[in-house]
Design a protein that fits this description.
Molybdopterin biosynthesis moea protein, domain 2, three-stranded antiparallel beta sheet, Hypothetical protein af1432
C-alpha cells in the first residue's frame, strides 16, 4: 500500500515509493525502494520537499506450510551440537546418532517435497551455535537439491543429507582462537582453516564412515568449478558431484548467516551471487537445480509489484523460477497470490531490504 506522508513525519525504516529528481539528469534526491534515514530526511528538507509517497511497512504473517517446524529445527540443531561435543571429546563421530538426525530430515523432505517449496532453515540464537546450525542448514539445502535431481530415491538422497551434516566436522580440529576470531584472518590462519575438509574426511574415516559419496561431500565441498578452490584445486567434472552440491548449499547458508565479522546477506542477494558465479565457483547444473527449487526470489524477499503494492515472498512453485507466491495486505487482510498463475501481476523490483536494517 502506498500513502503520502509529510517529510516532517517520516521515520527511519519508511520506504520511499517514488524516485525524486533534482533539476539535473543525474541529480537523484531519493530513489523508489530506498530506506528513509535521518540523512535523507535532512536532504529532503534542504531541497524544500514537504511531502513524499511511501510504502506502508506491513507486518506480514509468513507461516506458510514450512517443511520443518521451529521446534523440530531446534531439535536437529541441539542433537547435532551434542554429536559435535562428543566428537571433540572422543575423537570419533557418533555415526549412529548422526544417521538418526539425517533420517528425520531426509524423510520429512521426501514426504513433503511437492509442487510448492517453502524451506525452513535454523535461525541462530547465539553466535556460538554457528557450526552445527550451519551443518543442519546445509544438510536441508543439499537434500532439497538432491530431491530435485533424483526424485524420492531415499538411498541416494540420504548421502547428501549425511554429507551436509558432517561437512564441517573438520573445524573441530581448528584452534578456537582462529575459528571464532572476530578479526580478518591472516594468510597463515586462513591456510589452517582451509585444511578443515581434509580434517573432516579423516575424522569421518576414523569414525567408520565408508560411503564414498558422504566422504566426497566432506572432502571436496570447497572445490570450485573454475579450479580455484581448495584443497586440491580440482576443476569442473573432476570434482565429485557431492562436493559440487555441497559447495552451493554451503555458500548460500554462509552468505545468509550473520557472523561477528560480517552482516548477513538477504536471500535474494545470495541467490543473485550464486547465479553470477555459475561456471566460476559453481557447477551450472547445480545452480539450475537451486533455482528450480528456491526460485530467483527466495522466501522472505520483499518486492514491489507492478500494482505498486509491497509484497513478501512466502513460497515458490517448483520450476517457476521468477514468479513466486507472495503476500500483500489489502483492506487490512493478507492476500496470498501465486504469481505463476497470474497473468496481470508481476514483480517490478526487489526492495533493498538490507537498507531497511539498522
Amino acid at each position: 500500500m502506498i500513502r503520502w506522508k509529510q517529510v516532517s513525519a517520516l521515520k527511519d525504516g519508511d520506504i520511499c515509493s517514488e524516485t525524486i529528481m533534482g533539476s539535473a539528469k543525474d541529480d537523484i534526491i531519493i530513489k523508489n525502494g530506498d530506506k528513509i534515514t535521518h540523512k535523507s530526511i535532512q536532504k529532503l528538507h534542504q531541497r524544500g520537499i514537504d511531502w513524499i509517497s511511501v510504502y506502508e511497512e506491513e507486518s506480514f504473517d509468513t507461516a506458510v506450510n514450512d517443511l520443518f517446524s521451529e521446534e523440530k529445527l531446534e531439535k536437529f540443531s541441539t542433537e547435532l551440537s551434542k554429536v559435535c561435543e562428543e566428537t571433540l571429546r572422543d575423537g570419533r563421530i557418533n555415526v549412529e546418532k548422526t544417521q538418526q538426525i539425517s533420517d528425520e530430515i531426509n524423510q520429512e523432505i521426501i514426504e513433503e517435497y511437492g509442487e510448492y517449496v517453502v524451506p525452513s532453515l535454523v535461525k541462530l540464537k547465539k553466535m556460538d551455535d554457528y557450526t552445527f546450525t550451519h551443518q543442519v542448514n546445509v544438510a536441508i539445502i543439499s537434500t532439497i537439491l538432491a530431491t530435485e535431481k533424483y526424485g524420492k530415491k531415499k538411498e541416494i538422497i540420504e548421502k547428501f543429507t549425511m554429507g551436509g551434516l558432517l561437512h564441517d566436522m573438520g573445524k573441530l580440529w581448528i584452534p578456537e582462537e582462529i575459528l571464532k576470531s572476530n578479526n580478518r584472518l591472516k594468510d597463515a590462519e586462513f591456510d589452517i582453516i582451509k585444511k578443515h575438509p581434509e580434517y573432516g574426511f579423516k575424522i569421518a574415516e576414523l569414525s567408520g564412515v565408508q560411503d564414498t559419496a558422504i566422504l566426497n561431500a566432506i572432502r571436496y565441498h570447497h572445490e570450485r568449478w573454475d579450479g580455484k578452490g581448495y584443497l586440491q584445486g580440482l576443476k569442473e567434472h573432476d570434482i565429485p558431484l557431492e562436493g559440487r552440491f555441497l559447495m552451493v548449499a554451503d555458500v548460500f547458508d554462509a552468505l545468509t548467516t550473520k557472523r561477528p565479522y560480517k552482516v548477513e546477506w538477504e536471500p535474494y542477494e545470495a541467490v543473485s551471487f550464486i547465479v553470477k558465479q555459475s561456471k566460476k565457483m559453481f557447477d551450472p547444473e547445480i545452480v539450475r537445480l537451486f533455482l528450480l527449487s528456491f526460485g530467483l526470489y527466495p522466501v522472505n524477499t520483499k518486492v514491489i509489484l507492478n500494482t505498486d503494492e509491497l509484497a513478501i515472498v512466502v513460497g515458490n512453485r517448483r520450476g517457476s523460477m521468477t514468479r513466486p507466491i507472495v503476500k500483500v495486505i489489502r483492506d487490512d487482510q493478507q492476500i496470498e497470490i501465486d504469481l505463476s498463475q497470474e497473468d496481470k501481476i508481476s514483480i517490478k523490483k526487489v526492495v533493498k531490504i538490507r537498507m531497511l536494517k539498522d
